[in-house]
Amino acid sequence: KALRPERFDTDPDSSDARKQWNHWYFTFQNYLTSLKTPDDEKFQVLANLVSSDVFEYIADCKQYKDVIDALISLCVKPKNIIYARHLLSTCTQQVGQNLEQFMQKLKQLVKDCGFKTVNASEYHDETIRDAFIRGMLSNNVRQRLLEEDDIDLAKAFTQARALETAESQSLSYTHPRVPYNGSCALHSPVSIDPSDSGKPDSNLAATIPKCFFCGYKHPRSKCPSREALCRNCNKVGHFQRVYRVKQTFEYLKRELENAAVITINYQIPLVVETDAPDTAIAATLNQDDRPVALFSRTLNPSERNHSPVEKEAYAIVEALRKWRHYLLGVHFKLLTVEEVELLDCNPQYAHVRLPNRKEEAVTVKHLAPRGEPDDLGTSECLADANDLIEATEIAHEMCSNDEAADFPTPTNYELSKQKQQRLHPYNLRSREARS
Known about the structure:
Number of strands: 9
Strand content: 5-15%
Mean pLDDT: 69
Strand order of the largest sheet: 3-2-1-4
Low-confidence stretches: 175-206, 364-435
CATH architecture of the largest domain: Roll
């Protein structure tokens, strides 16, 4: 009675069904040995030690051997040797797992790898086979190869090549050939100058789309047309060669600005990227380097006379106000074209460090960043008039009347900055610009 096993009740589709069966079957065999049960009574004993759900799988069996075979096929799924070796080769020590636990994990994985004594040639082919299946691009071909528990290199290559050929040929059934249009211009082959192969920006330029303002490939901050005068319209900011696409560009820009954002995945970090050329300000809300929303407007004549720092601040403020419903309460990253480092700020003035390392206070109305930065150097930002009023009232309430009079002025900014540490957490840490 002491050796009587627990009632066997497991889900055959569970991940540990094999482990539970192996343990139960071992204890059941010990129980039969202790009872000295004859072979013709083992089925009856087993039926009393399984649940009703498990019994449904063996109810039609007549012999004890058939019952055991049915339970083994039910709980012990065949292991794919190639996949098992992939799990072993990619297994790494987890956080909080000591070396002894890691070693035990490896010993458990190696049991399904089917290692056996082989010669050098067989080991050579098995290694290439595993790398071949692991490194191929097509998941469909890999899935078909993994349907077999064990497959040699020659068979894997032959089957994969046949599947690849069939896959490419099947495309002709679903994608009919487009008739040739004689008015369409064919792109001529591009000749590559060997002397240009060593340029550091060659690979980077290939991944950057053409600039709308000059027609070349480069980051917007390095556009040669930012200070150029168009000979056609006498406007600054683009070359004459791209003037014809201006109307199309404006149309597409309006479409992007007015496009509805269906949803935002807040599991992916948000990035607000701003740009402030001479005549306009613009911003994009990005996720994984892909634009989610776009904002831009033209600066009025008085705003064009402001410093680049203040123009960048305008872009930040208006972008945060426009996308407030996305950014409020969410940590995000802010990227600016101007390499300006914002050290601290109060509701009206910001203490910044310019690219020449010079520090000065600039007017930043309506900008009220708050929140401590996280590990990425980002912080919660707020651009709302109500919060600005609240922030100013808090500052005046906690300062004396004499101190409050000079609090928002840049003259005594260093003194005011010390007071801010105990007034309100209006700290904006440095944000490095994208080069």
